[in-house]
Amino acid sequence: MVPNPRLDKVYEGIRLGRERRVDFLLAVGGGSAIDTAKAIAYGLAEPEHDVWELFAQTRAAKKCLPVAGVLTIAAAGSETSKGCVITNEQTGEKRAYDDNLARPRFAVMNPEYTKTLPDYQTESGYADIMMHTMERYFTNGGNMELTDALAEGLLRTVMKNAVTLHNEPGNYAARAEIMWAGSLAHNDLTGCGNDGGDFMSHKLEHELGGMFDVTHGAGLAAVWPSWARYVYRDCLPRFVRYARNVMGVTAEGTDEEIALMGIRAMEEFYHSIGMPVNLEELGVRPTDEQIEEMAERCMAASGARTGSARKLNKADMVCIYKNARGR
Question: What domains are there in the chain, each with its CATH number?
Answer without folding.
Answer: 7-109 (3.40.50.1970), 118-323 (1.20.1090.10)
